[in-house]
Amino acid sequence: MKQFIVSFLVVILAGQIAWASRTPIQTIAKDPYASALLLNADTGETLFADNADAPVYPASALKLMTLLIILERIEQGTMQLDDTVQVTVEAYKMGGSQVYLDPKEQFPVEELLFALIVQSANDAAVALATHAAGSKESFVALMNQKAEELGMKNTHFYSVHGLPPADGQKVDVTTAQDFGILCRELSNRPEVFKYTGTKVRDFRGGEFIMRTHNHLLGKVDGCDGFKTGYFTKAGFSIAATAQKNGVRIIAIVMGSKDRKVRDAKATELLARGFAMVPSKPEPKVAATQPESAQKKVETTVVSETKVAVPIVQNNEVIPPADGSGWTKFFVGLGVGFALFAALAFFVWKKRTKGAVNYHRRL
Fold first, then answer.
1. Would you say residue 286 lies in a domain?
2. Is residue 293 a part of any domain in this protein?
3. Do residue 307 and residue 248 come from a single domain?
4. Which of 199, 250, 252 is nearest to 229 (CA)?
5. Which of 93, 268, 327, 328 would you label with 115, given CA atoms 20 to 30 Å apart?
6. Is 60 a catalytic residue?
7. Range of 325's domain?
8. Which residues of the chain form beta strands (DSSP E)?
9. What sign does the CA torsion over 78, 81, 85, 91 have?
């Protein structure tokens, strides 16, 4: 425990020194926001846009691109969720939001993914990026390559975490429009919501409790992602999504001066989206019988087909397989006997009449 406290104090001191040497950048935060966008996730239709092409700083929200790259690596088989990630000194020295990783520690990829999204841990972002690509710089190159592939034309990443740029570095830049493209790509991956939909999670065996910065989770019906971002000059940003009645809506609010205003606007946009997009009817499921019932019906049908007509072998009548066959047999036998009796009576009658006439002629 003492070691953890010492590490915590060292990280805080290192973070203060790092923040003191940040590159000056322009403030973009506005009231109520710098830009906003509302999308139908399924079709990509823009339902509302306000200054959506304006350059903004995504801050920690860009960790969604970090998440996408890692999930793609896992899908390709070059990484596994249970792979062991060795914490680097560089990750240990990260400031801002973190889970206070130590170079002596190792964690599975999945644990660090939860730290990346739930806690928005900058140290987890560096640890994952270094594990996946060998260095932060190589991973940033992958992020920009993916942004280009997706058509995010006005986006350029310079970090894996979204912190304000250090001295001599550039700030990460995107637009609400571009971020909508990224969010749509994420919405096509169900595994994403395992991370973005988590509100609280233990870390390091319960020594640290991670809590999401996305206050829409649990408050907005159907909300299961994505992520928030903030530093002073960037303002408060959020990429939020919710799903109801078969419809998924994405709301993006970038560069708000006030967190509560940002959340209120995102909530308002999601409600507006659901009001604009008709609900999708649930797919009809054809009624099916249990397998045992199906077999029973099939057996009955086959049985009836086989016993519809009695079979004669070696001059013997083979009884039908059920009562209905016997009934048909005896009915047929009775009808035949009746016809035979009628015919015999008719012949007898005719002969009797002929005999009477013969005797009369005699």
1. no
2. no
3. no
4. 252
5. 268
6. yes
7. 300-361
8. 35-40, 46-50, 84-86, 106-108, 200-203, 208-211, 223-231, 235-244, 247-256, 311-313, 316-318
9. positive
Quote the tokens at residue 70: 């890692």
Q: Which of 222, 244, 276 is the C-terminal boundary of a domain?
A: 276
**DSSP letters of 136-203?**
HHHHHHHHHHHHHHHT-TT-B---SS-PPPBTT----BB-HHHHHHHHHHHHT-TTHHHHHT--EEEE
Global pTM?
Answer: 0.74
Residues 217, 162 share a domain: yes
Q: Is 292 a catalytic residue?
A: no
* Catalytic choice (35, 63, 146, 237): 63
Q: Whole-angstrom Cα distance, residue 266 to residue 37?
A: 9
DSSP state of 233: T
Query: How does strand 247-256 pair with strand 316-318?
Result: unpaired
Q: Catalytic one among 2, 7, 21, 60?
A: 60
Task: Tell me how far apart the alpha carbons of residues 101 and 92 are, in angstroms, rounded to a whole number.
Answer: 5
Report the share of the chain in percent with pLDDT over 70: 72
The answer to whether the beta carbons of residues 237 and 230 sit under 8 Å apart is yes
Model pLDDT for residues 273-309, shown as the tens digit of each residue: 999 999 988 666 555 554 444 444 444 444 444 444 4
Q: One of 97, 120, 159, 187 is an active-site residue; which one?
A: 120
The CA distances from residue 56 to 7, 36, 141, 176, 233, in Å, are: 34, 11, 20, 8, 10
Nearest-CA neighbor of 254 among 163, 179, 192? 179
Task: Give 129-159 pLDDT, tens digit per residue.
Answer: 999 999 999 999 999 999 999 999 999 999 9
Q: Which residues pair with 85 in a beta bridge?
A: 107
Count: domains in the chain: 2
| Residue located via tokens 């009695």 | 310
Length of the chain: 362
70-89 burial, b for 16+ CB within 10 Å, e for fewer?
bbbbbeeeebeeebebebbe
* Nearest in space to 217 (alpha carbons), one of 202, 194, 199: 199
